Amino acid sequence: DSGVTQTPKHLITATGQRVTLRCSPRSGDLSVYWYQQSLDQGLQFLIQYYNGEERAKGNILERFSAQQFPDLHSELNLSSLELGDSALYFCASSPSGVPDTQYFGPGTRLTVL
Amino acid sequence: AQRVTQPEKLLSVFKGAPVELKCNYSYSGSPELFWYVQYSRQRLQLLLRHISRESIKGFTADLNKGETSFHLKKPFAQEEDSAMYYCALNRMDSSYKLIFGSGTRLLVRP
Questions:
Q1: B56-96 residue pLDDT tens
Q2: Which of A79, B8, B60, B64 is 20 to 30 A distant from A52 in Cα terms?
Q3: B4 has which bridge partners?
Q4: What residues have CB less than 8 Å from B72, skipping those under 6 apart?
Q5: How far off is chain A from B87, nearest CA to CA, in Å?
């Protein structure tokens, strides 16, 4: 599958813990975007990386951080988890750093107990 | 502030009936608009992009700048069209984030 991949599919953890979500973009895509989808907030943009550099920030909490590695995969780190962080986290990728069609991964469902 | 509004949470139609999913946006500049679709247990997929002016799976959408709308239409709904539909706006400037509407669930009954 040459599409966007995300691991793990599901993650269950406790409040106060830290987790790392991983995303591999489509082959050749340089930009990675992270989104949070929750029942009350809908789909919210978190952050974008382009070729290893942070490009844009959205509604990302200080407890959350991300990075993009030289092989272009990205990780989203969520720390000091709260019940309200339970959501579906999507990664998307696009070929360039300018506004373009974004291709989405299947998402990681995070449940904080 | 930029905003995308999809007023209907659920739209239920019978197979063969016309469908219109509403999307209104708020943005002072020149926007780029998309429709994404999420079928059950699948990832978000791009359905339409307004600048390409394509018709995908029989769906079309026209950008109406006067009414700030980008409604999605299909003349004859099929059962396989049942899914969650999201309208999204991308600012045509240095910002790269997609702003999504809250989504409309389309249910096509046999």
A1: 889 999 889 889 999 999 999 999 999 999 999 887 665 66
A2: A79
A3: B25
A4: B19, B20, B21, B23, B35, B47, B48, B59, B60, B61, B85, B87
A5: 11
